Amino acid sequence: MPILSGDGPYNAQARKWLEDHFKAPLVVLTPSCTAALEMSMLLMEVKPGDEVIVPSFTFSSTATAVVLVGATPVFVDCDPQTLNIDPEKIKHAITPKTKGIIVMHYAGISCNMMRINQITQAQNLFVVEDAAQCIGALYNNHQIGTQSAAAAFSFHQTKNISCGEGGCLVVNDPQLLERAQIIRDKGTNRQQFFQGQVDKYTWMDVGSSYLMSDLQADYLLGQLKKLNIITKKRRSVWQAYHDGVQELEEQKLLQRMHVPDGAYINGHIYYFLMPTPALAETAIRKLQEKGIKATGHYVPLHNSPAGKKYGRVSGEIKHASDCASRLVRLPINPEMTNEEVSLIIQTTKDLIIILS
Fold first, then answer.
1. C-alpha span between 115 and 65 (Å, rounded)
2. What is the CATH number of the domain that holds 58?
3. Residue 2 within a domain
4. Which of these ranges, 60-64, 66-70, 196-200, 276-280, has the smallest mean pLDDT?
5. Between β-strands 327-330 and 270-273, what pairing exists: parallel, antiparallel or unpaired?
6. Among the four residues 46, 170, 185, 338, which has the most C-beta atoms within 10 Å?
7. Does residue 239 belong to any structural domain of this protein?
8. Is the pLDDT reported for residue 1 higher than 80?
9. Are 328 and 293 in contact (CB under 8 A)?
């Protein structure tokens, strides 16, 4: 009878593929990136009364992982060039209650991990990477997700590599490996039992069922083996968009994505910023009316009902709110034809010129 639950042969193969890809000592396949983030907070022993610094411009899962263990997410502003967390804002948000930082790499472009690690190491704080959008992306020739204690990735249907729902936690710190295995298996030493190290497995610690089924892992493995092909196609669409709207930026009709030196993008998202929120809202509506699935993105968490209830703000947050209100995303998927991409570019250019 085939194994359909977690820890089957496809789970092992996908996990090994990812460990080789990230050159990491352990990768745990999870039901979602959200589950991986939640697991990371247990792994980092975040407890009630602790604070964890997070970006305001991110998806809710970055903060809910903190809230679920009884800690307080502390929201800080973003860098207006990359929309990633501003390292200097992290520095000023640290208090005696701060346990660590969760950074989120927006659009597959890395945060300034060198500066972030300088700040956190000086204060003995952990760093977890929310790398949900980053499979296949590099920064300074390093895979994103390898410059911290642990990193969470998403394999949701909307991501570059997908198994419908799914994710993984990349564990980079060797000191966390044994406990990570226990937490993923309902707090038991089940993995040691499977390896013959104990004669029966026992409840050892906190944990939950952070396993991906082997059915999902089978589908995921096929996707992972096509990572380079998928990334190349998405990058091609991304570059066409970027080149296509360059003249609009030169005319100051919009602001294109900023890609820092050393960044190798994976083509997950293409966005631009309009001069005003009203123009962004109109551009999205008009593009949708023409059958183009343009969208905005996050409502900054510090402005959300749950953010106000469960978190607190450090300093002034102006860039996250401003950039979020002016952001327009264009659709990307690896199946798009050159004709479809060209039509979207031309339609976008014509519309923005009319709006100006």
1. 24
2. 3.40.640.10
3. no
4. 196-200
5. antiparallel
6. 170
7. yes
8. no
9. no
